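Dear H.,

Thanks for agreeing to be a second pair of eyes. The structure we're designing against is below in token form, covering all 241 positions.
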């Protein structure tokens, strides 16, 4: 099985659950990881990349028919990522290219992400094997790693700005010497709060949220619920959200 196949897995499941007290019970906050972008570069030999996913010098990127793309110049994602945290990962054969060149970031309009750069380790790779390049980001930092080893941190001048992911950044139309990409995947993390189920004889406050028959409602008036006062029969008390 090719190394890149595992990046084509479907959406990932929730990883962490936290209990949150509310006026009407306990809500659950789940930290969820979801894959929002992936490309395994499947296609016939000599064809181009998927332009719904990639922009840049797409004319200088060709599939090899074995699930790789050979880059003579640079590519970046067609869409920007604005989620507050996540991880971008790619398997790349790039020789001695630096981590930021092999797998880089650009602003939403294709510019340089300015900020403070801190080296965390040597980011040179001494051979032409495939290596896993990754970027873990938050609103205030991008941290690069190669094969799980952290090598660089970028603290952007503007926190939380959307960004595009770039491959072979700095190729700029010059022949790069043979950068080959096996797969790219982007996963984001976010928190989902699930409201507690509606219960009779419970005191609800304005703004509380409850679920009933799989639907979430917001409480409109403070009250103590009686049997039959669930969302639906007394619409003045609840608003569907």
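And this is the sequence the design step returned. I haven't edited it by hand at all.
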């Amino acid at each position: 099985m090719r190394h890149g196949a595992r990046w084509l897995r479907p959406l990932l499941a929730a990883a962490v659950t936290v209990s949150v007290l509310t006026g009407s019970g306990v809500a659950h906050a789940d930290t969820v990881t979801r894959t929002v972008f992936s490309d395994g570069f499947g296609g016939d030999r000599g064809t181009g990349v998927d332009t719904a996913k990639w922009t840049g010098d797409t004319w200088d990127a060709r599939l090899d028919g074995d699930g790789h793309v050979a880059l003579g110049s640079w590519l970046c994602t067609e869409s920007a990522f604005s989620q507050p945290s996540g991880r971008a990962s790619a398997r790349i054969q790039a020789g001695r290219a630096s981590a930021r060149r092999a797998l880089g970031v650009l602003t939403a309009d294709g510019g340089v992400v300015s900020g403070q750069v801190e080296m965390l380790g040597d980011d040179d790779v001494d051979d032409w094997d495939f290596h896993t390049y990754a970027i873990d980001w938050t609103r205030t930092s991008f941290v690069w790693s190669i094969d799980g080893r952290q090598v660089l941190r970028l603290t952007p001048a503007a926190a939380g700005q959307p960004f595009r992911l770039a491959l072979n950044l700095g190729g700029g139309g010059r022949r790069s010497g043979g950068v080959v990409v096996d797969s790219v995947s982007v996963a984001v993390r976010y928190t989902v709060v699930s409201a507690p189920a509606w219960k009779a004889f419970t005191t609800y406050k304005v703004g509380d949220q409850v679920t009933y028959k799989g639907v979430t409602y917001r409480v409109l008036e403070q009250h103590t619920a009686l049997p039959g006062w669930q969302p639906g029969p007394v619409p003045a008390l609840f608003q569907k959200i």
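Two observations from my side: The helical segments are 99-102. The mean pLDDT is 85.

Warmly,
E.
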